[in-house]
Write a structure and sequence with these properties.
Helix content: 55-70%
Order of helices and strands: HHHEHHHEHHEHHEHH
Number of helices: 12
Strand order of the largest sheet: 1-2
Radius of gyration: 18 Å
Largest sheet: 2 strands, antiparallel
Number of strands: 4
Mean pLDDT: 86
Strand content: 5-15%
Low-confidence stretches: 1-7, 96-102
């Protein structure tokens, strides 16, 4: 299958993806092979259903949110290039030494944090409300914690993060709260190395 993948992906496309994402030639061909194995419709794109067949996403409480991150707004298919752009957020930061054409690599700390922020910003209004925080917390813990306890966690989180008093968390407030968190460790997939 590896040879099939490399023959379907043109060398120019690989070079463009390398520049855009920072992935190596071998990583791109390996991921293309994975992409084509997930492409059950064999149409060069992946649907949400294709992603839901991935066991690690199926059991992840935030699996649906992660899957949604692969799809531009109002789109129900993602091509290989879009797939690679999203995966680039999970590339280890030390890989930034590779020749990446964009001014800030997709796997920079800021872009990793923006990706995480968007997992919480369910309505895409550039802030995380108490209700959004509650919904994501509920996805993560299921029925293991009472609604009252979850509400208390959400209230305390917003109270600690909200510096401008609007009862929500902006991206800049989100960054400030996470400034001591090792984002590199938490948001990197080592096998992409």
């Amino acid at each position: 299958m590896g040879s099939r993948a490399s023959t379907l992906l043109r060398e120019e496309e690989i070079e463009e993806i390398k520049k855009e994402t920072g992935f190596s030639h071998s990583q791109i061909t390996r991921l293309y092979s994975r992409f084509t194995s997930l492409d059950k419709g064999e149409n060069g794109t992946l649907s949400r259903e294709d992603f839901q067949r991935i066991p690690e996403l199926a059991i992840n409480p935030l699996g649906d949110r992660i899957i949604n991150a692969f799809f531009p707004e109002a789109e129900d298919q993602v091509n290989f290039r879009g797939f690679m752009r999203t995966l680039a957020h999970f590339r280890p930061i030390e890989d930034n030494s590779k020749n990446v054409a964009v001014s800030e690599p997709l796997n920079s700390r800021t872009n990793k944090l923006l990706f995480a922020f968007r997992l919480y910003d369910l309505d895409r209004d550039d802030k995380i409300s108490r209700d959004e925080l509650l919904q994501v917390l509920r996805m993560m813990v299921g029925v293991n914690i009472s609604d009252e306890q979850l509400g208390s966690i959400a209230d305390r989180t917003i109270q600690e993060a909200d510096t401008n008093g609007d009862n929500s968390i902006s991206f800049s407030e989100f960054i400030k709260v996470l400034e001591k968190v090792d984002v590199e460790q938490k948001m990197s997939i080592r096998f992409l190395h």
